[in-house]
Write a structure and sequence with these properties.
Elements: H1 2-23, H2 35-41, E1 43-48, E2 54-57, H3 58-63, E3 67-75, E4 78-88, H4 89-95, E5 112-118, E6 123-127, H5 128-131, E7 141-146, E8 161-163, E9 177-184, E10 198-203, E11 209-212, H6 213-217, E12 222-230, E13 233-243, H7 244-251, E14 266-272, E15 277-281, H8 282-285, E16 295-300, E17 315-317, E18 331-338
Parallel strand pairs: 1-9, 10-18
Antiparallel strand pairs: 1-2, 3-4, 4-7, 5-6, 5-9, 7-8, 10-11, 12-13, 13-16, 14-15, 14-18, 16-17
Amino acid sequence: MQDVCSHNIDTDGAALGSVVARLLSDLPDWVPLPPAFLDALGLVRLGGDVADSGLYSVGEFRALPATTEAATYLSGAGQITDTYTGVLLRDLLADAGGAVTDPAAKNDILSHYVIATGSDGYSAVFSIGELEQRFGNQPVLVAYADQAGQLGPDGTEGWLRMVVPGDVAGGRYVSHLVGLTVGGGPDFIAGPGGPTTEFHLDGAVAHPAGFDEAGLAALAGVTLTATYTSGAGQVTDTYTGVPLWDLLQDAGVLTDPAVKNDILDFYVVATGSDGYRVVFSMGELDPRFGNGGVLVAYDDALGQLGPDSQDGFARLVVPDDTAGGRYVSNLVSIEVVDAAGHKHDPVWG
């Protein structure tokens, strides 16, 4: 009898959320909705730089193509293993028409990100590059069901939560999910292009710095072999460089110690001499979470890099990506940005 009642609560709650979502479907983004209201009804507000913003109910999530993923992560209570069912975040964005991009900018989708927000205001950033199948291909989920009973009307994690199967710790598993905001890095500004001999690391850091080849070579280096697809076909090369995370650590990202996992609200913009730019979420780089292993390379076996080469003295290498869109060549800048200070909030307006 208890199982039947529980099923009815689940069904009735999800159905009410669907009705409310339909009633509020034409509500402008700037009109605030209380987080507790959204959480109680299992509603997520999708907004920002997306073609078709609006409210998604649990019922609407269930109507989209489902994916099931087993995940193990570290929490304050220790290691947790669970199996989740939900919608891939990239599929949800596609259902909403995708991020609004600049057709004049090459791979402009890679300059965009998504901020996931819980009912308590806790948030985390995901770069669209880490989600896209051609690039990072990470199966990040908006989950609505799980085997351990974390989710649902009586679940400790709310109706909906983010699930990030590749992450070590659970900081980006945003629970009681109520908001997804699509944002973009700086507007595309075409640059002169050509080989570079230095780049600068600045933005929300305590110690901005400039780097040339000698400066990078003086730091602790890593050598790795990467294979990726380019316009000319498949490329395999062996690179030597400095982990991007190490450079960011030395620069000192200006996080707020009063905000839990504040590092997850930041992203990095890497820009080449022609203006081409790519966004990485700090969460995908941090070894405690995505541990992405992105390298700032200054030497390679094939001779792509150097002061007179077409790729400049330094480029990013993203060893887990399928295509080379995030391999920013002729690097001129790496900027750290606090997304929490640059977002239109679709939950509170």
